[in-house]
Amino acid sequence: MDARDELLDLAQVRERSARKNNMVRAFPWHTMMLAVLAGGLFAAANLPAEATGLEQGWVAGANSRARLNFCPPEPDRASQPGRPLAFLELQLDDGWKTYWRMPGDAGVAPAFDWSGSANVASATTLYPAPHRMGDQGGEAIGYKSAVIFPVRLELREAAQVATPKVIFSYGICKNICVPVDLTLEAACYGTSAATSAAVDGVPRTPGHARPGDPILVAVSGSVAGAQPRLTVDVDYGVGAEDADLFIEAPEGLYVPLPARSAPDATGRARYIIDLSKIIDARDLAGKQLRLTMASTRGASEAVWVAR
Fold first, then answer.
1. What angle do CA 233, 235, 237 make, to 5 degrees?
2. What's residue 135's pLDDT?
3. What pLDDT does 105 receive?
4. Where in the chain are the domains?
5. DSSP string, 211-238
6. Above pLDDT 70, what percent of the chain?
7. Residue 164: CA count within 13 A, CB half-sphere
8. C-alpha–C-alpha distance, residues 251 and 13, integer Å
9. Residue 81: its pLDDT value, please?
10. Closest CA to 127 of 115, 114, 144, 110
11. CA distances (Å), 160 to each of 38, 83, 87, in order?
């Protein structure tokens, strides 16, 4: 079984949007509404591709376009149970960005409503490793220019045709921020180097790591006490660049972004997370924290229970 097959079998990858309590205040929604009133930015948000002159199934949104790429299994494989992949492809106009499932200090996580699909029991969005980005509300986490989300589908009936359909809600920002809602119906546009790279870019869990993926060395510290803080050591490997660490907490709890730390000559980096910046760090006690580690060499994730 190769790394890609292992990825598709990951039981721990789940769709979740970690949101902190003050996210609505941090994301400049008032700016969005001004943009809508002033520029009519949503005029083409839900027009079909043919109406906007776009080709290959792209649906136009404000300063962006998206499509849902799904090629059903071959007929001779249709009776075999499996987890076929769809690809939700998003392209942004120059200078615009969108957000990861945990958007950072400012931003809004994407949302996916698959209830309109036929013969789809569940759909799990897989997120390629993100990047840290400067934002007018602080540091954001997400993607610039383009991103492809692989989507693992569970079919109700493996021998029947599946027709995925999604209402895709996302936020984009440049000088202003705009919320977008698109309805996408799947069609087959084939796989490409970009879709393969999207699958390869999804962080692996420890049992499925490949050479070059970061390794969590140790987590120490406490969420209790007068000065709650965590220390995280990561081995990125020699020669890794653009190394970064992102930490998510469940149930809407928020963990501040650590200061960036460049790996030393051995490829190791240490991060200090000051938890005194949140309202009550003790709320994290006993909760599973999800650590995503990424660099130019690879990406991985691990879980640590706060104490």
1. 160
2. 67
3. 85
4. 3-200, 206-305
5. TT--EEEEEEEES-SSS-EEEEEEE--T
6. 78
7. 30
8. 17
9. 54
10. 110
11. 47, 13, 20
pLDDT digits (tens, 9 = 90+) for 151-207: 999 999 988 999 999 999 999 999 899 999 999 999 999 999 999 999 999 999 988
Alpha helix (H) residue ranges in 40-188 = 49-52
Alpha helices by DSSP H, listed for 122-212, are 193-200
- Outline where DSSP puts E strands in the chain: 59-61, 64-70, 85-92, 97-104, 111-113, 120-125, 131-135, 138-144, 146-155, 165-173, 177-185, 215-222, 229-235, 244-248, 268-274, 288-295, 298-305
Rounded to 10 degrees, the C-alpha dihedral 49/54/59/62 comes to -130
Q: What is the mean pLDDT of the chain?
A: 83
Strand order in the sheet with 288-295: 244-248, 288-295, 298-305
CA distance 108 to 222: 28
Give yes or no for a contact between 12 and 103, defined as CB atoms under 8 angstroms apart. no
Residue 292 to residues 13, 25, 108, 238: CA-CA distances in angstroms? Answer: 12, 25, 18, 19
pTM of the prediction? 0.82
Q: Give, in order, the Cα–Cα distances in Å from 282 to each of 38, 133, 241, 255.
A: 44, 28, 34, 12
Fold classified for 206-305: Immunoglobulin-like (2.60.40)
Whether the per-residue pLDDT at 269 is higher than 70: the answer is yes
If 0-12 CB within 10 Å is exposed, 13-18 middle and 19+ buried, where does residue 229 land?
middle
Dist. CA 102–CA 19, nearest whole Å = 7
